[in-house]
Specification:
Blueprint lengths: L16 H12 L4 E4 L3 H12 L7 E5 L2 H13 L4 E4 L15 H14 L6 E5 H4 L6 H6 L2 E4 L6 H10 L3 E2 L8 E5 L2 E5 L6 E7 L2 E8 L13 E4 L9 H13 L8 H15 L28 E4 L2 H23 L7 H4 L3 H6 L4 E5 L10 E2 L12 H13 L3 E5 L3 H10 L6 E3 L7 E3 L4 E5 H5 L28 E4 L3 E13 L2 E10 L3 E6 L6 E3 L17 H29 L10 H8 L7 H15 L5 E6 L5 H14 L3 E5 L3 H14 L7 E4 L5 H13 L4 E4 L13 E7 L6 H11 L3 E6 L4 H8 L4 E5 L18 H13 L4 E4 L6 H11 L5 E4 L5 H12 L5 E4 L10
Helix pairs in contact: 2-3, 8-9, 14-17, 17-19, 18-19
Amino acid sequence: MNTLRLSFANAPIERHAPVQELLSRMDGGFFPIDCSEMEQSLAALILAAASQSKKGRRFLVIVPSDAEADAFASDCRAAGTTAMVFPWWKTAAYRPVESRSQAFGERAAALAAMLDEQGPRVMVAGLRAAMIPLPPRQLFEASLFRLRLGDTIDTGTLADKLVSWGYLRVPRVSLPGEFALRGEVLDLFMPGDDDAVRVVFGYDTVEEIRRFEPVSQASSGDRPGTLLVRPSRELVWNETLINHAIAALAACPRSGAANHDERIAMLAQELQTRGECHGEELLFPLAWEQSHSLFDYLEPGSVALLLERERLHAQSHAVRREYEGLYRKALMDAPCPSPDSIMLKLESAIEAWPRAVSTWALKDADAGERLACGSEPPRSYFGNVNYFREELATMAKAGYDIHVFAESELQAERIRSLLKEFKLSVHDRGLSAGFTLPAAKLAFIQEGEIFGRRKRAPQSLKSARSKVIDTFIELNPGDFVVHLNYGIGRFTGIERMKVMGNDRDYVKIEYADDENVFVPIEQANLVQRYIGNEGDAPRLDRLGSKSWENRKSKVKKSVEDLAERLIRIYSRRKLAKGFAFPADGEWQTVFEAAFPYDETPDQLSCIEDVKRDMESERPMDRLVCGDVGYGKTEIAMRAAFKAVMGGKQVAFLAPTTILAEQHYENCQERFRGLPVSFGMMSRFVDKAEQKRTLLAVAEGRVDVLIGTHRILQKDIRFKDLGLLVVDEEQRFGVKDKERLKEMKSNVDCLTLTATPIPRTLHMSMLKIRDLSVLSTPPNNRHPIRTVVDEFQPDLIAQAIRQEIERDGQVFYLHNRIESLDEIQMFLQRLVPEALVESAHGRMDAKELEDIMHRFVHRGFHVLLSTTIIENGIDI
């Protein structure tokens, strides 16, 4: 009998009779098997047990959506079995994938893994991915070959093969799809892999295979004995495949494009000359006679698990209708294949594979016998910790074995502190969703069910690794430098010279009158990069003159004066006494645990700095500097919550009405269900509401007041202000800053900025103001993609339509106010279905704010604007 062993929770699932029955039926080959009352997380645990049994079977899992595919694979990995996701193209129907999209490599990697004996035990695919035809198994399998230690390889032939497979030969590997062959070393970065691989040859014999990180070139320590080499994409074009695909496309209904035949001929030429073309994935299914599916790539004895068959059936029809609707639209613009030729009939593919286990969510009296697994779906507590405690007490009294799964070690610690009175197990990793097994007295609870919805980055996204580059060390010939003793000169290079019989490296610096100084390399600390006005070349100093010494003396005097002023300011600040907020309580822990994202290390460090400042008697004056989207607002919200829990009021100051309104809405969402009241003061709030807010603030009935410079006016009186949060302080005027100084004298102040002005940053660097920097991007943040191209109306229309179809919005930047109206008319003619409005700096302030307000609230699609959009808007 198979038993289920969980590495992260010693739960008695193996004693649950329906699980034993299901595993027994699979062992006996009694297929197909229909199951009910099986949550997806339970299914993942059962598959993990089955894949680790003596049979060692492998599974293909079809789930209704891509998000569920990521979650199911994650659950399998948490249960101790290898799992991989077969990805979908992640585009709208008939919307071409980018030529260098990582989806090409990921799909090829997944197919190769299915054919690899050492591949993952579980392959998971979303419905859309499973409905796309694949190359014949024999065709793809023929393009794989395995390198083993001791194999004899012709490296020249290998390089030619890699080029024909779509790889780019480069001097040094840095990106997926590249390879480098230097003598007896082959570096290969296969698309779909996290690391590159280095193969070392002894003449023509494979002596070593190891993985390494391309940016740092550091070995990862993984030294596999074999390497399965695969193409850069699932289909490598040849003459036969091209001819078949082009003939099939030509046989499809004609498009509405005037140059229909020319476009088909152009596609054929592009495939023959480059081996690829834009949108080629739509032509993949046309390259062979018969459609093939993921089921064709399964080994004999493998089992297909089909989760929620009703949803799979309904969504397959919905996807087909979506393709049929967009096909008619796409056919108006260009030649394209019909939905029937690029989509599989999933039910037919399923029926062709009898070794299947299906789960059903709904009861059907006409259905045959279904094995009831007895699991119940998770409950949601929406952040109501007291209600959750009551439920835990009830389950504990009934004798349940309770396991709570957090998404990080930090969250696990928070949950343990909140639930310390209960006997339960809290794990810092685990399931994507919980479930209960009443018959087994077992409860699995995922943290998102306690605190509300969690927002996870998809597992399919790779985390980018990078390293900091110290630009003050990297000098290029021609750069201006400063020598401590000789002044400003020009770096010309590093020369090796023989002096007094010894060879040494010298830094050569050119000065005025063609004079040079050679600095020994061990004295390079005396040389620094010159930092001045960008674009202005400094005057080179003359060796032997007193100009450099005079300049140093003048600067020294200025520094002494500044230091004296700083000592006075710093002394007053040290002597000032503020309010010491109490340490974190249970409410603070609940609030922080409800944050729907994983904090970055910089965020956690910054939050600790802020809390330490707030808990001290000295008034806080901290600057938080970080790029847009790096988590500054969450830091401010946690500080505000701590202040309110300490019995104080909070003022949240923003430079524009739009940004103030956004902060207000975000705070309302983040503090939902918590005993914190908010007010807002800006021109978007009518006079009557402002009067009511003023009275509530004075009486202490408003905990957090959010607004523009309006809250700096004399008629605003706080009952007990304890914290001032200033967003983008550099955008406020001189009078506003004077008022800020008055308000900051005895309250804690937290300033947020993405672009600090030099004076503010300078004060922070000198410790007059404390500084926290957020330099770590959020997990799996998408990089900005920049395309530089000539002006093409068709390209602009395509970009705007693509963004609108994905329910997005567009900025169109134009640098001349005089011709802004002409561009607006041009855009309206180009994309008549899009709503276009314009904004510029000469507009009336109220009108400009109204346009920005409507754009933020999705009132129109395209904002045609000058660079004014960079000021105070968060989208």
